[in-house]
Amino acid sequence: MTGTLAASPGLLRTELKGPVLHIRLDRPAKRNAINDPLVAALHTAFVNLPAEARAVVLSGEGEHFCAGLDLSELQERDIPEAIVHSRSWHAAFDAIQFGRVPVIAVLHGAVVGGGLEIAAAAHIRVAERSAYYGLPEGTRGIFVGGGGSARIPRLIGTARMTDMMLTGRVYDAHEGHAIGISHYLVQPGEGLAQALALAERIAANAPLSNFAVMHALPRIADMAQDEGLFVESLMAAIASGDEAAKLRVRAFLEGRAAKVKKT
Ligand code: 1HE
Fold first, then answer.
1. How far is the CA of 68 from the centre of ligand 1 (A)?
2. Ligand 1, atom 1: nearest CA belongs to which residue?
3. What Rg value do the Cα atoms of the chain yield, rounded?
């Protein structure tokens, strides 16, 4: 599957490279600002991942990853419509975070507002040194509505997010890396290659193990310790009972699998 999704011309481009599906936000003229059709296209893409895909790389076309909500759509909505709109973002970004396979986001240029919200829904973030992070909602008289209030504090803490929203503070790529937004920081232009390499590595893991990491870890983090440990025991038993786990452990014990190496 290569090319533009039939349902989303000019919004998303998708390309399957072996086990890795590359999904690109493709509204560079509008800095990949997210309008209603783009939210719908993202949702559709993430709930209909091709069976061959074992990891996804999400990037933005042009000079910026994503300028957030398309502000030109904002003026028209009344309050009930705005709630439904926000819930449509939740559904789309939940499909990213709690979908079938891990998602690696490549961040460059502006990663602002809803752009930071979508980045926060990914499992791994690779930032190029051009990336910068802001939450201009506060200065635009609005609030986050794409899951940011739940996901961003889990990355950088409520206090930092409060400062970003109240003061319009913008973090550069180095600062964003230091406070925990990105996992990897690379030179401009190197983000996609790095993300694809990580995606290949992730795609080589046992699918059930990846699924457990994506689905169990964030939920256990939200549980009381006793409940979390019980869920962990169930997840561990399910993962280790899988044939893929047995094969991999046997391969190590028979000297056929890689050792853990210092990098
Ligand atoms: C847009 C948008 C947008 C660009 N909605 N049209 N997000 C923001 O408050 C960020 C607003 N955008 C910016 O601050 C800048 O555009 C950027 C820093 C991202 C990029 O600057 P630059 O100089 O490269 O581009 P530009 O000239 O500002 O924009 C190019 C075009 O994209 C221009 O349209 P044109 O028809 O005049 O060419 C811009 O109007 C358009 N554009 N960003 C609509 N965001 C679910 S709640 C989430 C809440 C939020 O995300 S709030 C944050 C909104």
1. 7
2. 30
3. 19
Q: Do residues 48 and 101 make contact, with C-beta atoms less than 8 angstroms apart? A: no
**Any ligand 1 atom below 6 A from CB of 90:** no
DSSP 108: -
Strands (E), the chain: 2-4, 12-17, 20-25, 55-60, 103-107, 110-112, 124-128, 132-134, 171-172, 184-186
Kindly report, residue by residue over 141-195, the tens digit of the pLDDT.
999 999 999 999 999 999 999 999 999 999 999 999 999 999 999 999 999 999 9
CA distance 167 to 139: 8
| Per-residue pLDDT tens digits for 11-33 | 999 999 999 999 999 999 999 99
Residues 6+ apart with CB under 8 A from 215: 98
What is the model's pTM? 0.95
Q: Which of 11, 31, 71, 170 to mutate to test the pocket of ligand 1 (most atoms within 8 A of CB)?
A: 31
CA pair distance 108, 122, nearest whole angstrom: 15
Q: Whose CA is nearest to atom 12 of ligand 1?
A: 67
Q: Which residues are catalytic?
A: 117, 137
Residue type, 253: L
